[in-house]
Every structure is written in C-alpha cells, then in structure tokens.
Amino acid sequence: MHPALIEVHVEQIEQLFYSIDPSPFHTRDLDPQAHDYIVACARELPRELPLALVIHLDRPLTQEQDLAQLEGAIRSHFAASASANRARLRELFRRGRISLLIGVSFLSLSIALGEFSQDWLPKGSPGEIVRESLLIGGWVAMWRPMEIFLYDWWPLAARIRLLDRLARMSTRLVQRRRRSATAATEQAD
Fold this sequence. Notes:
This protein is mainly alpha-helical. The chain has one domain (4-178). It has 5 helices and 3 strands. A 3-stranded parallel beta sheet has the order 1-2-3, with helices on one face. α1 (32-44) links the parallel β1 (4-10) and β2. α2 packs antiparallel against α3 (125-141). It is rod-shaped and about 90 Å long. The two termini are 48 Å apart.
C-alpha cells in the first residue's frame, strides 16, 4: 500500500524547526506553522493509508544533520504532541468526573428540596414555580458533565489518533537541483 504524501518545500532544513528552541537538531520542536500545515494536510488524507512526509530541500543537509536524525526529530515532535494531548484528555475526564459528582449532588438536592417544598409551600402557581425552578436548576448543573462526556472528548481523541499517525510517518528528502550560474546566464542571453 502506497503512503499518502504530505509535501513541504523549504530552502534549508532549519526552516522546519522552531528557531527559538535551543535544543540540538534531533530533539527540536517543529516550527508551529510547519506543524499546523503538516497536521492540516494529514487531516485531509485517507485514514486507512500510512503517511509519508516529502521535504523538497534547496540546500543540502549539513554534516551534523542526516535523514535518520531528521525523521527521528519529526517523529519525536509528533509523539510528544500526542502525549501532551493524552494528558489534556485525562485532565478533561478528571474534570468531567468532578463535574458529574457536583452535578448529580446538586440535582439530587434540587429534587429533594422540590419534593420537600410541596409540604411547606402553598399549592398553586408560586409553589409550582419554585419547584420547577429547583428542578431546572438541578438539570442545568448537569450541563457541564454532559457536555464533557458527550461532546468535548471525541475531537481530542481524534487529534491524538492523527498525531500518532504522524509520529509513525516516514520522511523522504528530495534535493532540488540548482542550475549553475553559467547555465542560467547562457539561457538569459
């Protein structure tokens, strides 16, 4: 099965990496724009295909850089991003469990107060409004845990799957050949 290609063109390999990061080449983070571009391209490609990054490079790699280091740095970057998103997902579920505990407690209290209020509030409109308000307030307290467990987690889980795919992608360099200055001058004449 042929991999789905993500193609990037840079003049020199350093353009792919975050320039402020003082780490050695093989452990540096990708430039945020390069990261976003690669992720956006990968999101558009079929999920069942493996991914491959093709880097069109104008200048050759330096002696301390090689393809294995480059591929390792890119894979490491996306693996670290996936790990950071896993931590966010765990934190979201932790917050969801706490919100659920608070919401269920408040809902139970609201229902109990609504039932209890039947004994001491007069029958009719004002008493019904108080009881219904307590019930509505209790269900509103359940809004946040329901949002977390029904909707908030799955985009984060999808991003983790995508970053894991990117952490496994192969990398290929394509050296762009520059025409010699004399050949370019001769063509201009």
